[in-house]
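agent> fetching stored inputs for the flavin-adenine dinucleotide docking request
agent> found them:
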Amino acid sequence: MSGVLVIAEHRQGELREATLEALGAALELAPQTGRQVVTAVLADDPQALAGPLMGRTHGLRLMAHPDLTAFNPEMYLPVLEDAIAAAEPGLILMPHSSQGMDLAPALAGRLGLPLVTDCIGLTYQDGALTAQRQVYGGKVSETLVLKPASMYVCTLQGGAFEAPETSAVDTAGEEITLTELSPAHARRFVEYVAGALEDVDIAAADILVSVGRGIGGPENVPLAEELADALGATVSCSRPVADVGWLPKSRQVGTSGKTVRPKVYLALGISGAFQHQAGMKNSGTIIAVNKDPRAPIFAVAHYGLVADLFEVLPKLKDKLAG
Ligand SMILES: Cc1cc2nc3c(=O)[nH]c(=O)nc-3n(C[C@H](O)[C@H](O)[C@H](O)COP(=O)(O)OP(=O)(O)OC[C@H]3O[C@@H](n4cnc5c(N)ncnc54)[C@H](O)[C@@H]3O)c2cc1C
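agent> prediction call returned; pasting tokens
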């Protein structure tokens, strides 16, 4: 196959972390393909977004037009068709975000390409792409061997791949000012409305102190918050905790919440149902505190403590204070 084309994602003038994760996936595949990774940035001022991409992509294709300030598939599709014709990639990667879910099928449909979504692993075998995905809410892992094709479109699950180091490769850039861009007919960007409960991005945290139903009630959540403060961590939770409003929905980890990959994930009173595990099992170090030795969380924990969290928390806090 030819190289890998990564479609960069940005919002409100900032490159999204998921783009760097896509570059991690692309660079993992580069040795298998023997070809290079090119990143396409479509924006009003793509140069301003290029900083975090330097050293993480072999080629940069910066495409500038005032109408590319915010994502609009009607604007992206024709521009990308040109970029794809120029780069002739064997694989087109993008995050499995709301943007990727909109763009990838449209692009695949328009170009008649095979599409595989929400991938957690990608490899090439005998010229055909093999993709790992989680299905049935993360209960089943499947490996799909796609029919050989000259080009594939893939979206990647958030948190499934690691961003590469900033000096992974040498980057050569190319800037293109688009003079003609057909106006969108059906859709136009009106404004960005942030989710009301998006108080903090748990996916960006290095350390998460995560609480489950075992925390007992909202009156005990401050115990976890104090520990998080002492550790420089962020508090996250399982779904029941968000459902009853002990913490905002934005803090929920799992299939119907967020996928996280912190360096340390401390699970307090979380049973570890597969819907929860699907959102955190790729964390660097998982530490679980649960009074039930048969709790499924221990199957993915690197360190497990069968104990009452209300006994463990004060001791941990004392240790950190001392
Ligand atoms: C379609 C669908 C989507 C879902 N999406 C998600 C999702 O995104 N995220 C998610 O988390 N769940 C999700 N769920 C729910 C999931 O199936 C579980 O019900 C949920 O994860 C359980 O949360 P929990 O571990 O906090 O609670 P429980 O399963 O009730 O576990 C509480 C745990 O705390 C322990 N415990 C109790 N007291 C203490 C104590 N004092 N000290 C130490 N341990 C204690 C118990 O032993 C127990 O293991 C989803 C379910 C469905 C059907």
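agent> quick read of the result: Residues 137, 212-214, 238-241, 252-257, 269-271, 273, 275-276, 279, 289-292, 295, 308-310 surround flavin-adenine dinucleotide (CB under 6 Å).
agent> awaiting further instructions
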